[in-house]
Amino acid sequence: MDNRKKFKEFYHHSKRFFTWSYLKGLVVNPKQLPVVTFFIILAELIINILVVERVPYTEIDWKAYMQECEGFLNGTLDYSKLRGDTGPLVYPAGFVYVYSIFYFLTNQGENVKLAQYIFIGIYLLQLYFVLRIYIKTKKVPPYVLVITILTSYRIHSIHILRLFNDPIAVLLLYASLNSFMDSKWYLGSIFYSLGVSVKMNILLYAPALFFFYLVNLGLKDTIVQLLICALIQLVLGLPFLISEPSAYIKGSFDLSRVFNHTWTVNYRFLDIETFESKCFHLTLLGIHILLLLIFMPLCIKYFKSYCRLKYVQGQVQPQIDAKNRENRLKAKLKKDIKKKTNMKQEDEKLSKEQEDFLNSFENLLKKSNQKIGKKAEKMSPEIKDEVTNFSINFDILSQLFILPMFIVNFIGIVCARSLHYQFYTWYFHSLPYLLWSTDFSIITRFLILALIEFCWNTYPSTSLTSAMLHLCHINVLYAVYKKLSNELRLVSKLNT
Fold it and tell me: Which of 309-323, 347-361, 368-382, 444-458 has the lowest mean pLDDT?
């Protein structure tokens, strides 16, 4: 009897997975992304293995990275003397330590295939952190992420055919964002600073992160978090700072470095002289600062709302948990009583007359409550339990944190002096989020995603693709600003 009941409960529970509404939700409902996430990561594992096994590896920077690390491992601590075939070492100390580990694991960089498989692991871990953000924010439908993630040629190429350091820096960045969403401030700051230590582009998030600290923690604890970030940089760079401090600072954090026009994706339409001119660089810096000044007040309002609602969560969640525990206890007691009653009924044999009476009485009840009865029969035991389960989905608060972080990084991309092909990883996974934070139609959103992907896949870049990339970026930036400001204006009207 017990086994039959368990089978019946299992049948009712599994039945809902094959309903049209559930299957449709796997495609369009952001709340069902956790299920889809498993299949995305599994598909990516298969795709990446196939790429490694079937597509020839292309050497760009891997050998140079190994040469730079070899110099360090041989005892050279003067950053100006650490060089590879592509030029001097231009990344902070975290890069040196990470790629020194790769140096040992891959037989001094000779076992490239093993390095590619290591980067598959790095990419899948990064993807887990990315999808966790999308799961928590419940902003983007699953089918959008399936299409964008699985079909990007350039992203797969950057991670497993080129072995750049950008994916490692971005992995640490996404790990930090996840930590901040979970209110793990110290862990978030550690991951963030480690990301900066691998590549300096992670500093693009710094303006938003500073105000996020300030709004949530206050000045005193903000200083503590900034000290943690600074201390990590100091500890990692200490051997080089002791040896040749000026060489290390100039080599790893050189803001005046001139990029090579050969590799530019976003400024092919400029001549080399203009591209390399200091006036052009200062103009872009001015635009960057101006855009931050325009967007930051909106971002701060989002952060303040996040802070207030987090406080409400802290007050309300314990009460919700207590009420749910109470309900579960009541349900368990009711179930135990029902089980004991059923056992007694089984022990007592009913006469034929009693059985006939009970059957006719049951039929009478079914007829008089036909509509209610039908709904009750369809409802699984799990759903019945959920009716009495109290919950408020506080995870969606993460939207108030993630959008400002993504938009501030995106401003940095828009105003970058030059974008090289590996830089696509800096913002690729945030593009669906940004586009679904606009009022664009579905067709327009996918068109922009496709055009951006096309620009990044065109090698070498052309004047047309560079101009098209800027046009897409500006449209996204303006659309996000428009929606942000409209929403905040509406909120302020409701509060007055």
Answer: 368-382
- Taking the C-alpha atoms of residue 221 and residue 214, their distance in angstroms, rounded to an integer, is 8
From the number of C-beta atoms within 10 Å of its C-beta (0-12, 13-18, 19+), residue 273 rates as exposed
pLDDT in tens, 227-257: 999 999 999 999 999 999 999 998 888 777 7
- β-pair partners for 88: 83
Q: Which two tokens stand for residue 217?
A: 């923690």
Nearest to 426 by CA among 85, 126, 222: 126
Long-range contacts of range 473-477, CB-CB < 8 Å, 24 or more positions apart?
A: 473/410, 473/413, 473/414, 474/414, 475/448, 476/410, 476/431, 476/434, 476/435, 476/438, 476/448, 477/291, 477/407, 477/410, 477/411, 477/414
**Using CA atoms, how far apart are residues 129 and 140, in angstroms rounded to an integer?**
15
Specify the pLDDT at position 390: 54
Q: Token digits for 250?
A: 């100039």
Residue 164, burial from CB neighbour count under 10 angstroms (0-12, 13-18, 19+): buried
Reduced 3-state DSSP string for 411-470: HHHHCCCCCCHHHHHHCHHHHHHHHCCCCCCHHHHHHHHHHHHHHHHCCCCCHHHHHHHH
One-letter identity of residue 44 = E
Closest listed residue to residue 478, CA positions, set 448, 442, 443? 448
Q: Are 88 and 80 in contact (CB under 8 A)?
A: yes
Residue 87 phi, psi dihedral angles, 5° rounding: 125, -165
Output the six-digit token pair for 177: 């964002």
CB 173 within 8 A of CB 205: yes
Q: What is the CA radius of gyration of the chain?
A: 29
User: 3-state class of 380 per DSSP?
Assistant: coil
Q: Are 204 and 191 a contacting pair, CB within 8 Å?
A: no
204 CA to centre of own chain? 16
Q: Give the up-direction half-sphere exposure of residue 160: CA atoms within 13 A in the CB hemisphere.
A: 27
pLDDT digits (tens, 9 = 90+) for 161-170: 999 999 999 9
Residue 355 main-chain phi, psi, to 5 deg: -65, -40
Number of continuous H segments (helices) and E segments (strands) in the chain: 21, 2
Helix (H, G, I), strand (E, B) or coil at 133: helix
Rounded to 10 deg, the angle between the 112-137 and 93-105 helix axes is 130
Q: How far apart are CA 111 and CA 99, in angstroms?
A: 13
